């Protein structure tokens, strides 16, 4: 008898489980139906509520429509990005479409010139370089800026530009259509930039030491918190982790929407050799009318390796690349106020700093 009762109990247990499942399913279905009914009821009430609203006077209706239009314009403005208004400055056109003019085959290294002598010799390499940077390749009769409008009389500066009529710069200045890029590392002397801006040039000075990203001084002078380098920053490194904002000159030209520079002035404190190499390898130098470059020879410079004779040969080869691009040296300034040192030695009657001025004879 007890065995029969146990068997009957086991047979009744599955029936109770099925009943519980059916109850839960029914409750779920009932909740879904209630939710659907409430939603339909709310949707049906909305037109009635709108119909019960008192009519707005004409002035209020116009204000409401204007508010809706403004909201639509704001959404469109956010989605389409920043638009430059008519009174906004045009120098910093960030996000401009890249120029196709510089999309050429990129070279990976410069062509080194033959050694100055059958065997590598620092004496021969140094003498060849110093003679090269001290000898003008083309004459320039008008290097003073005293005759330009807005420029006060002053003594001769080392930052010399050629204003002969056979070159286009003087005409561009008079038409107020010239552009100057000035590369520096925190120098306080900006008289050259100010005088060029007063003369009619659009001047952009790149200085990583200023506090704001862009500062405008007057109508034609801009300061940018940016350092020109021979390479762009690593995209894998977050921007806030970088010590300074650095870009290649070609990248800056694309960002600003500029296709040419009438004058490039560079005082980069021994970074000029690698920057010049980048300008040559990427053909950016072809978009420069005149180059005023301060070079430093007291040490090899940033990321320039090799023994002393190899370093000097590399310097000389870079300057010869400019000549192959139809640049001609028209002025050389030996700075006697700087230490008279050449690669950490007092030799060759050399200064540690020279300012060289080149003109692109193919510039139009």
- What is the general shape? elongated
Sequence stretches where pLDDT stays below 50 over 5 or more residues: 1-12, 68-90, 152-156
Portion of residues in beta strands equals 15-25%
Number of strands: 10
> What's the order of the H and E elements?
HHHHEHEEEEEHEHEHEE
Mean pLDDT: 79
Structural summary, described in words:
With 364 residues, the protein is α/β, with parallel strands linked by helices. It has helices at residues 2-52, 58-80, 122-133, 169-174, 191-198, 249-256, 272-281, 308-324, and strands at residues 179-183, 202-206, 214-217, 221-224, 227-229, 246-248, 261-266, 288-296, 327-334, 353-360. Strands 3-4-2-1-7-8-10-9 form an eight-stranded mixed beta sheet, sandwiched between helices. A two-stranded parallel sheet has the order 5-6. A hairpin with a 3-residue loop joins strand 3 (214-217) and strand 4 (221-224). Helix 3 (122-133) runs parallel beside helix 8. The N and C termini lie far apart (117 Å). The relative contact order is 0.13.
Summary of the model, kept short:
The protein is of the alpha/beta class and 364 residues long. It has helices at 2-52, 58-80, 122-133, 169-174, 191-198, 249-256, 272-281, 308-324; strands at residues 179-183, 202-206, 214-217, 221-224, 227-229, 246-248, 261-266, 288-296, 327-334, 353-360. The model is unreliable at 1-12, 68-90 and 152-156 (pLDDT under 50).
